[in-house]
Amino acid sequence: MIRNAQFVVSNTDPKKCPKPDRAEIAFIGRSNVGKSSLINMLTGVKELAKTSQKPGKTQLINHFMIDDRWYLVDLPGYGFAKVSKDTKDKWEKMISSYLTGRDNLCGVFVLIDSRLEPQKIDLEFLNWCGEEGVPFVVVFTKADKQSKTQTDKNVKAFLNKMEDIFGDIPDYFVTSAEKGSGKDEVLQFVDELISE
Ligand code: GTP
Ligand code: MG
């Protein structure tokens, strides 16, 4: 359980993030996949992270302090088509330098839309994480949006692709920010990561 969650600071410059004096977990994934919603669900604070039906809502590196113990980070989404190439390049640079340069980062939760078949952009991003040694787990989102059968089918197809790329299946969670499902499992895993 999270008892206290507080916004700390927003940045475009990874160098201006808070002093890396606590364990840190970041949330990333395609625009609109449900990063900010999942963060609100996990923390139990409804409007802690700003959400929107329109993709591209989160544009900064947002730090939240959790229980005075760890930092939770909400990142902008990748693969958002409706911004200029220039903006896209800037976001990508910001995100990649954050992910590869943040010393206290102990895990990156990569969110995948459980409604979709495996998407190239997600597989490419995960492949990049693997190459760069960024420690990740996979979180499937929006499981409430379709039948369990359909969710299971999409999850399985995605995990099969992961196995093709990496030779094994990563840790993963199936969640719904709407229903609160997967909350205990994800928080239990966070606890393990930050205690290491
Ligand atoms: P960006 O900041 O734009 O990259 O998006 P994001 O990944 O932070 O997504 P956000 O949390 O803003 O959610 C996008 C839309 O999906 C919003 O309309 C949410 O209400 C909806 N949504 C997110 N998670 C869920 C979920 O688990 N179930 C349902 N039904 N809707 C969800
Ligand atoms: Mg967001």
From TrEMBL:
**Gene3D superfamilies for this protein:** P-loop containing nucleotide triphosphate hydrolases (3.40.50.300)
Tell me the ranges covered by the EngB-type G domain, including all copies.
Answer: 21-196
Regions annotated as coiled coil = none
Reading the lineage from the top rank, the first entry is Bacteria
The transmembrane segments are none
Query: Is this entry keyworded RNA-binding?
Result: no
InterPro entries membership: G_ENGB_dom (IPR030393), GTP-bd (IPR006073), GTP-bd_ribosome_bio_YsxC (IPR019987), P-loop_NTPase (IPR027417), Small_GTP-bd (IPR005225)
Keywords (alphabetical) are:
Cell cycle, Cell division, GTP-binding, Magnesium, Metal-binding, Nucleotide-binding, Septation
So what does this one do?
A: Necessary for normal cell division and for the maintenance of normal septation.
Q: Which family does it belong to?
A: Belongs to the TRAFAC class TrmE-Era-EngA-EngB-Septin-like GTPase superfamily. EngB GTPase family.
HAMAP family the record matches: GTPase_EngB (MF_00321)
Q: What is this protein called?
A: Probable GTP-binding protein EngB
What organism is recorded for this protein? Algoriphagus aestuariicola
